[in-house]
Amino acid sequence: MEEKVFFTDRERKQLFILYRELLHLSGDTLKEDDCKKLKNHLIQAAANNSLQRDNFGMNPIIKNMQTAVIAADEICMQRASILGIMLHDSVRSHFMTAEQVHEQYGEDVAGIIRGLIRINELYAKSPTVESENFRSLLLSFAEDMRVILIMIADRVNVMRQIKDTPNIEARREVANEAAYLYAPLAHKLGLYKLKSELEDLSLKYTEREVYYLIKEKLNETKASRDRYISAFIAPIQQKLEAAGLKFHMKGRTKSIYSIWQKMKKQHTSFEGIYDLFAIRIILDSSIEKEKQECWQAYSIVTDMYQPNPRRLRDWLSIPKSNGYESLHITVMGPEGKWVEVQIRTERMDNIAERGVAAHWRYKGIKGESGLDEWLTSIREALENSDSDMQAMDQFKMDLYKDEVFVFTPKGDLYKLAKGATVLDFAFHIHSNVGSKCIGGKVNGRNVPIRHILNSGDQVEIMTSNAQTPKRDWLNIVTTSRARSKIRQALKEITAKQSAYAKETLERKFKNRKLEYDEAIMMRLIKKEGFKEVTEFYQRIADETLDVNEIIDKYLAIQRKETETQEIYRSAENYNLQPDEDTIKNSNGSDVLMIDQNLKGIDFTLAKCCNPIYGDEVFGFVTVNGGIKIHRKDCPNASQMQARFGYRIVPARWAGKGKDSQYSIRLSVIGHDDIGIVNNITSIISKENNVQLRSIAIDSHDGLFSGMLTVMVDDTSKLEALIKKLRGVKGVKQVRRG
């Protein structure tokens, strides 16, 4: 009674027709009691209400039997695949377990069912199907390639059955998936016929007006097209027969979907598409004479019709990598129309008709190299007409072993390297998400940032505005992308902290009414053993260095340098050298004019750049109220102008005092040759009004570096001296300190 409710009268008739057809296609591969066990099982499952109709109201047993017929007839699939198709709904609804299937039908059947259920679970995550990642994930989830073949057969069956469904939205969704996901897979697998059917039906359901427009146009032009084909092949046929060749010829009209793609690509109407068909010459040749007779036919065709040499495709001499063999030529036929002619043998055509080659590579369907190799292997198995598919039944996919595919809560799909953690995924989404990541939810379960992800996981990233990147995160992430973003974030944090620490230090100087000299601070940082300035300021930011202690050390260096300068001045008194910091000319007038010709203002020369007469200079009002003179190209000039522009006053040299000289430091680098130091000092001693005050030389690995302190009158004397020093043999670089 329940069985009558389960099947309508129409479905009952379908059941018996499909059952007989399935037995005919696969009866010899089924075991003796398979049919009996399967029949009893399905009756019980139906009675138990375990098998439910789908969105389109399709009976599950009828639908699965239709899919099994397609799989057996079109793809030559056998026992394990057919039983897997018929039983997987029962396992999915928990009427029976995969272990029970294993006991009753074998591991092969149970493995296929597990693959089908995994893919159904994948769909339950509402993924974005329109991505290359989803296609890859689908393949990796299936594990056994027969599962993919079954999915294609099932989609072809569904597309055939839903033409009259009232559920238009569901039909459109199924049609879009067929065009984007299953048709390309069928194309790559060599299932050309199924691929074309999926594409045409998809167009019919999504672009109904376009589909029927092209179909009507094809019907309208069929008679004229047939007449043209007959007129074109008639003379060729006579010549081929006269040459003693065994053959048959046919015209192949392009699919509606292919014509639509050409119309879009060429931006033209149906009437603008000229290659609506191709002529195929199929020779009945022995293996030994295949190439010879194909080229003979080529010669006959091109003798009659003018060929286009740029459109010759010779896959006969060198077959395509997937084994496709054929000669393609385009010739000028009657009425000035270009016609494509394909010349091949029965063996070649058998392979091509089954879609094994099907131009899958040059039609722009690209894939990953590993996937293409795998698909090529399947094509080779499909090509072998003697094969009973045992090789395919044993074939397992080993793709994407180094990758995992994970979903966001919205169903977006991402590909990551195997071993990727929650933190890797967070940075993969966006730098800000990664920087604020505190953990995640994987398949609804809370996990830490170091949790390793698996294919198919649905991952939600948990964030907090209080979170910042940590250095130990570099030991948690495994992807170079995440590691790079963490390093960048840490660098930015360090830069901000260093800038804040420097500002804090300068503010302390100001509060204590001390002048901050960048050059002295640089010497202090070096003396304290810091290789990087940022490291010094980072220690201040971390409060591992005391600011007051730093200021005390700074003042100690400043006092020491001041005392040294006083000693130098004392030794120079016999030359009546004026005070270097308050230079006046002999008649008492100011050497410098500051601001708007103001005179009598105290000023000092900055030690960071040591300005001398002739340098372009400016004045800087210090915290003590005095003015310090800097060169315009001083290393600190840009910073002072940017931060303290209001404290900068114009200054220029007004005159040079009698016997005025300035202390200048010169850095000299060169080869450590014998006598080079003597040559340098000799040149300095011969210069008028130039005095050498100190020299420090350091030699290492054949190179020497020296720091000279000299007294000069002005920039012209300094430039002349530098030029002569650069001319000393072995000297590579001389620059002002």
Spans of 5+ residues with little confidence (pLDDT < 50)?
A: 355-371, 382-400, 566-589
CATH architectural label of the largest domain: Orthogonal Bundle
CATH domain class of the largest domain: Mainly Alpha
Give a quick account of the main beta sheet: strands, pairing sense, barrel closure.
6 strands, mixed
Q: How many independent structural domains? A: 6
Radius of gyration: 44 Å
Proportion in helices:
40-55%
Separate helix tally: 26
The number of distinct β-strands equals 20
Q: Average pLDDT value?
A: 79
Percent strand: 15-25%
- Amino- and carboxy-terminal Cα gap: 105 Å
CATH superfamily of the largest domain: Hypothetical protein af1432
Morphology call: elongated
Helices, strands, pairings?
Elements: H1 2-6, H2 9-26, H3 34-47, H4 60-74, H5 79-92, H6 98-105, H7 107-124, H8 132-142, H9 145-161, H10 168-188, H11 192-206, H12 208-242, E1 247-253, H13 256-266, E2 277-283, H14 290-304, E3 306-307, E4 313-314, E5 327-332, E6 338-345, H15 346-353, H16 369-383, H17 390-394, E7 403-407, E8 413-417, H18 422-429, H19 431-435, E9 437-442, E10 445-447, E11 459-463, H20 480-511, H21 518-527, H22 533-541, H23 547-571, E12 592-594, E13 603-605, E14 617-621, E15 627-631, H24 637-643, E16 648-653, E17 662-671, H25 676-686, E18 691-700, E19 703-712, H26 715-726, E20 731-736
Parallel strand pairs: 2-6, 13-15
Antiparallel strand pairs: 1-2, 3-5, 4-5, 5-6, 7-8, 9-10, 9-11, 12-16, 14-15, 14-16, 17-19, 17-20, 18-19
Helix pairs in contact: 2-4, 3-5, 4-5, 4-9, 5-7, 6-7, 9-10, 9-11, 10-11, 11-12, 12-13, 12-14, 18-20, 20-22
